[in-house]
Specification:
Helix content is 35%, strand content 34%. The protein has helices at residues 2-19, 31-42, 85-92, 112-118, and strands spanning 23-26, 46-52, 59-64, 71-80, 100-105, 108-111, 122-128. The two termini are 24 Å apart. This is 40S ribosomal protein S15a-2-like.
């Protein structure tokens, strides 16, 4: 169920970007969605986001930047070792210059650059570019 919530939220953002909208509202939400959005914000793909009523079903209002080309959550969580992250990134992303693979590690959700820097492996949950 959690994977579907993440995938629905990411697809909603991609569709809003393609329509040229400046803001999008995501619901239902989860902690994984807000952590994924934090990584996107840190990397400059999203201007800001605000979580409303997180203890119930909740919703997140996201202010879009206009940089998202594609964003997907993997329905299968693939285990990946720290030394294999670069090969996986080259296989999944269209170019070497831009895009990020998001990995859940023992230290929380990290993008591929931070996971490589910390020498951590984990499960791949999605990517964006």
């Amino acid at each position: 169920m959690g994977r579907r919530i993440l995938n629905d939220a990411l697809r909603t953002m991609v569709n809003a970007e393609r329509r040229g909208k400046a803001m999008v509202e995501l619901r239902p939400i989860s902690n994984v969605v807000s952590s994924f959005l934090k990584i996107m914000k840190d990397r400059g793909y999203v201007k800001s986001f605000q979580v409303h009523d997180p203890h119930r079903v909740g919703r997140i209002t996201v202010e879009l930047q206009g940089r998202i080309k594609d964003c997907k959550a993997l329905t299968y969580r693939q285990d990946i070792k720290a030394r294999d992250i670069e090969q996986f990134r080259l296989k999944m992303l269209p170019t070497r210059q831009w895009g990020y693979v998001v990995i859940t590690t023992p230290d929380g959700l990290l993008d591929h650059e931070e996971a490589t820097r910390r020498n951590l492996g984990g499960q791949v949950i999605g990517f964006f570019h």
